[in-house]
Amino acid sequence: MNWLTNVVRPKIKSLLTKKDTPENLWIKCPETGEMVFHRDLEANLYVVPSSGHHMRMPAKARLDTLFDRGEWTAIPSPTVTPDPLKFRDERRYVDRIKDARAKTGKDDAVQIGFGTVEGLVLTAAVQDFEFMGGSLGMAAGEAIVTAMLTARDRGTPFVLFVASGGARMQEGILSLMQMPRTTVAVQALRRAKLPYFVVLTNPTTGGVTASYAMLGDVHIAEPGALIGFAGPRVIEQTIREKLPEGFQRSEYLFDHGMVDMVVPRHQIRGTIANLAHLFMKKDRPKHGTAVVPVADEAA
Fold first, then answer.
1. Cα separation of 135 and 1, whole Å?
2. Global model pTM greater than 0.90
3. pLDDT per residue over 262-285, tens digit each?
4. I want to staple 34 with a disulfide (CB 3.0 to 4.6 A). Which of 29, 71, 174, 218 is the partner?
5. Do 50 and 62 belong together in one domain?
6. Do residue 40 and residue 146 come from a single domain?
């Protein structure tokens, strides 16, 4: 046995080799500065236990939490041209998309699925802020339109969890065109007499707020969420006045009639289930049997 080869060299290599230690094991609460272990935060639906601050929640976790037993079926979105305008600022737009896809493992900012919520079949879509700020581009617009039309064709209620910084500037007018396109899809749900519920999360801003995010039958906001078209700083600079305390936050908007209710994250699933059964005029199943809406009956 060679002591230098078999003992010393492996120890030196172990010191020089970078250990695969997960990052962000501890997450800092923006309100109190408290450090929370990431597993405790995930187990509490990404709500800081002590302060109640609602952190951003991944799209998949949203869908897992919403549907019964975390079981749901993904709905594929149509493929779009990734860089229609060949846009470039400091970097090429196509490179930004590649980085976002590598970081999130998603094709774009919206994920769609359907399953049962307390026995009632429901279609849902989630905007993921981690993908380029949840910005609305052609792919996100196609996904939302697809989700709404799927809900119409299946005769199910539709719920949308919104989190976005607004339109995606790299797609220019093609991004802005998604605002009327999604509005038309909302009208398709209206004609089918199917309910459309919106859950406004932090943040919901820009062109998204000016279109489908404010066209729901019921608007539910998470506590402390920033909701508005332009940011508070931009408004203050424009009107040269100090805005009221908590302006554009969920609680302020509820007090002024802009949202219907402010619901903590742990109660959102139950709230959506109650609303869906109420709007669809369906009784809760006694033994967990799925209540499948029929399109003709809903119409």
1. 61
2. no
3. 999 999 999 999 999 999 998 876
4. 29
5. no
6. no
The whole domain housing 239 covers: 57-298
Identity at 159, one-letter amino acid code: V
Cβ count near 180 (within 10 Å): 11
Q: Is the pLDDT of residue 195 over 80?
A: yes
Are 98 and 172 in a shared domain? yes
Contact 57/45 with Cβ under 8 angstroms? yes
Closest CA to 208 of 95, 286, 118, 110: 110
Q: Clarify whether residues 62 and 99 are in a common domain.
A: yes
**Residue 200 is inside which H or E element, if any?**
strand 196-205
Beta strands 227-228; 196-205: pairing state: parallel
What pLDDT score was predicted for residue 2?
60
Position 1 in a domain: no
Note whether 222 and 77 are same-domain residues.
yes
What's residue 228's pLDDT?
Answer: 93
Closest C-alpha to 97, from 170, 192, 12: 170
Contact 141, 182 (CB under 8 A): yes
